[in-house]
Amino acid sequence: MTRDYLARQQSQIAAPELHIPAEITGVWAITAAQARTLDGCIPAEASDQIVWVTKSVGDYLNLTDHPWSSAEPQATDPLALACGGPGPAGTLVIDDATGQILGVYPTQAGYPHPTPQEPSGP
Question: What is the pLDDT of residues 12-23, one digit of tens each?
């Protein structure tokens, strides 16, 4: 799903010759409540629903609103601006039950990356 999502953005790149093919660098299936431990841009959630978190290199344009992320972050929120993109790498959160993309977080300057770690708990 991550590769498909990133590939669909290729036609929207201002300079298509700069396209970066997607390369997945990490995949986790965890609860929504644990997802934030993998990426500081993922909002805190209290749910025990299972989500997939993928990290990859690729064209993260973030041109669409998703339930957990916005294409137009609030200009007054420095964290939202740092998590808004575009960027040459990033994180996607996908709902395991529906396959819906919940959030897109492009990496850019000032991005709050915790060191990815295996979440604790069952």
Answer: 887 777 778 889
